[in-house]
Design goal:
The structure is a single chain. The protein has 2 helices and 11 strands, in the order αβββαββββββββ. Strand 7 and strand 8 form a beta hairpin. The strands form 3 sheets. A 4-stranded antiparallel beta sheet has the order 4-11-9-6, with no helix packed on it. By secondary structure, the chain is mainly β. The longest helix has 12 residues.
């Protein structure tokens, strides 16, 4: 399955009320789940490819050493509900350079309302709120690069 087909499956799940999708054939297995947790996509390669490409996992020590004090540069953990990026790309707060922002801090958004765009491979993906909430904090700057699962907004469920 190529990336275009995988994106189509993800869009199918996010555009409907489906909470879990599973596809399996002789070569691969794909599971897409959604809900209150960030969306997770699992792709299992054929068994021969897994054996050839699987690096040896490092052993986990029995007792973890004491954690070093947090550096001043380390970001503080985000507390509360967040809206996360479902893909890797570029974060945009507005639909075009001359347009208004989709949302501002303090705005109340409905479930399904677009809160931002994430551009990936020349495709603009609308990121929607999964539940009614208040935007407490915008965690990324406009045009900032984002990774899969990066928190974009800190929100408060209503």
């Amino acid at each position: 399955m190529d990336i275009k087909e995988l994106r189509g499956l993800i869009k199918l799940v996010t555009d409907t009320d489906i909470t879990e999708f599973e596809l399996e054939n002789a070569d691969e297995k794909i599971v897409i789940k959604r809900g209150t947790q960030p969306e997770i996509v699992h792709v299992q390669a054929p068994a021969a490819a897994v054996v050839a490409a699987a690096p040896a996992a490092p052993a986990i020590p029995a007792a973890a050493p004491a954690a070093a004090p947090a550096s001043a540069d380390a970001p503080a953990p985000i507390v509360g509900e967040t809206i996360n990026s479902p893909i890797v790309g570029t974060f945009y707060r507005k639909p075009s350079p001359e347009a208004e922002f989709f949302v501002k801090e303090g705005d109340v958004v409905e479930a399904g309302q677009t809160v931002c765009l994430v551009e990936a491979m020349k495709m603009f993906n609308e990121i929607e709120a999964e539940f009614k909430c208040k935007i407490v904090e915008i965690l990324k700057d406009d045009t900032a690069p984002v990774e899969f699962g990066d928190p974009l907004f800190r929100v408060e469920k209503i």
